[in-house]
Design goal:
The protein is α+β, with helices and mostly antiparallel strands. Helix content is 12%, strand content 31%. The longest helix is centred in the N-terminal third of the chain and has 10 residues. It is globular. It starts with a helix and ends with a strand.
């Protein structure tokens, strides 16, 4: 249930530095070539964070946050 808890934590706008979101990568994330958008619309000005599901294949969940308005909840979610 760790993955589900991490996703719920991130979507609730909780701290990305604390459990259960400690595995989220936040620094200079580059979107993959292909992903399946689950909600929202990707824009280049979103701050992207990546929650890896499989480190070897680099698959996981992507979350986009509006940097300008400092909204704690993601406005975009995708998986690859």
């Amino acid at each position: 249930y760790q993955l589900e808890a991490s996703i719920a934590w991130i979507e609730a706008g909780m701290s990305l530095k604390k459990l259960p979101a400690e595995k989220v990568k936040t620094k200079r994330q580059v979107p993959p070539e292909n992903w399946q958008i689950l909600y929202g619309q990707y824009k280049e000005n979103l701050r992207l964070c990546f929650l890896p599901v499989n480190e070897e294949t680099n698959q996981g969940y992507w979350f986009g946050f509006e940097s300008e308005i400092q909204k704690p909840e993601p406005v975009f979610k995708a998986m690859n």
